[in-house]
Amino acid sequence: MNIKQQRLESLLQEVLSQALAELADSHINHLTITGVKASSKQSAEVFIEGTDIPPQERKIILERLKKAQNILKDYVLSATEWFRAPELSFSFDDSLQNANRLEHIFAQLANEQKNQTKK
Length: 119
Hints:
Keywords: Ribosome biogenesis. The protein is an alpha+beta fold. The chain has 4 helices and 3 strands. The chain has one domain: GMP Synthetase, Chain A, domain 3, CATH 3.30.300. α1 crosses α3.
């Protein structure tokens, strides 16, 4: 990935994090953006930390983010002074949850191995 692409994604992540924090909707103004994958300035996939969010609430959050997309795009335009804001799509990032699950499995394996060596 080139540096220009990384700058674009980093800037979008920062600006969108600020925009979400300023929204009046309590379902989405506390969300953490873990990353942005931009194909260009035309579209960007925004990853939201979803470790502690139940599936029912995820659906509500995605609907509200979709409704707030125009507000978020306006915020991006005003903060960046770009001519056009990218189309935003949102998805949940479960990598932290997966990492925690792997750590738990490794801890169990280590305990089992320790118990077998004691016998």
